[in-house]
Specification:
132 residues, Inner membrane protein YbaN, transmembrane helix, mainly alpha, membrane, transmembrane, 0% strand
Length: 132
């Protein structure tokens, strides 16, 4: 039963990732990472598929080795979020939706841009001071 749940999560999140490439506002990266996690636990076939594609493999490898988000992906995320914000502003969207969506987008941008961009940044990160 558990394996089927992981397989379902992997397939659905992979489909959402593909949709996220085409639809602004729907994140692709997060769904690829979720699909990799679920497929590693429940479907070696899907996991091998993901790791055989350089785009997915690099994204998954970066996340597994320090939660790294490449500069290119940061800029693509920023562009996608900007397009979504523009769509909200062009349409006659209720203020509460604009404010809540903008708040979520701002939080997402802060999280994305605070992540390291390379393994070197993760390795050179200063250790936490020892507590006395």
């Amino acid at each position: 039963m558990r394996l089927w749940m992981y397989k379902i999560i992997a397939v659905v999140s992979l489909l959402l990732a593909f949709a996220g490439v085409l639809l602004p506002g729907l994140p692709a990266t997060e769904f690829v990472i979720l699909s990799a996690w679920a497929s590693a636990k429940g479907s070696p076939t899907i996991y091998r598929f993901l790791m055989s594609k350089p785009f997915f493999r690099d994204m998954i490898f970066n996340w597994q080795n320090g939660k790294i988000i490449s500069r290119r992906n940061k800029w693509l995320s920023t562009l996608s979020i900007s397009v979504c914000f523009g769509i909200l502003m062009i349409h006659n969207t209720p203020l509460w939706i604009v404010l809540s969506a903008s708040g979520g987008m701002l939080i997402a941008l802060c999280v994305i841009w605070r992540r390291p961009e390379s393994i070197e940044q993760v390795q050179n990160k200063p250790a936490l001071p020892e507590q006395k």
